[in-house]
Amino acid sequence: MSTDAPIGDPLARNLSPSEDPNSPYFLHHSDGINTVVITPPLSGPNYLSWSRSFTLALSVKNKLGFLDGSITTPAGTSTLYGPWVRCNNIILSWIIHSISQEIASNVCFIGDAKKVWDKLKDRFAQPDNARIYQLQHQLGTIMQGTQSVNEYFTQLNAVWEEIHNYRPSPNCSCGLCTCDALGSVGERQQTDYVFKFLMGLNETYDGIRGQIIIMSPMPSLDKAFSLVLQEERQRQARVAILPAAESCALAASHNQTKKKDKSDLTCYNCGKAGHTKDKCYRLIGFLPDFKHHSSA
């Protein structure tokens, strides 16, 4: 039996790390300084969401090891040093193009991508009570208003996610808990989220709001959102149908009124119904194409 590696296998072709698509040192020909650009750029308060987006993008490129320390700087004599420099520089450019100019001016002369990453983390990732206070205050002021249900929910969810990043739910570290108290805490938090979502809805949703509140058990936040969204879509469908129905009803009413009004008219010249004296053909003359009917 042949033990040769299949054609196309990197091992069979003895590819270098910079040529192997599975290697973190590999750079595709399309990878440039603008390949990874996170928007909105890092401005400070948005560090948590920004860093999450950046690490996701970097993991897709198989370059996360350059930031988490699992890939260290090779010796200058190593064959990996050249590929490392290229990858390091491309990641640096991605970071610089994904942060504000003010922040970039403070890190643009640092030549190690990991050092830049760590500096940004030390500067912006620390717990910020002022930011948490700001988010909690913002949460209390969010109402649906003129927004759609989806826009309103998205705004709420963005604040909840950021608060959760600053204050993640506690986890059992001893491994001995059997009462599932933390699970109950999580359920209560979800219920609070549902209440907040329902409270901010416009008064026109009082019906569906009341139905959700009396449900037992209380639905999850996503389920409550889905129910309200269905209500909104049903209303939009009714609004789309209503104008056509009203137009038909108006036309029918107009025709009925016209027929009724005409049947109530009597000509005092000829004594016939359906017209008045000022429109009587016997006085104003018959039209050229008028067809005379002989009386029996």
Automatic annotation (TrEMBL):
Keywords: Metal-binding, Zinc, Zinc-finger
Domain CCHC-type intervals: 267-280
Any GO molecular function: zinc ion binding
Claim: Heme is one of the keywords in the record: no
Secretion signal, residue range per the UniProt entry: none
Keyword Zinc-finger: yes
Protein's UniProt name: CCHC-type domain-containing protein
Organism: Juglans regia (English walnut)
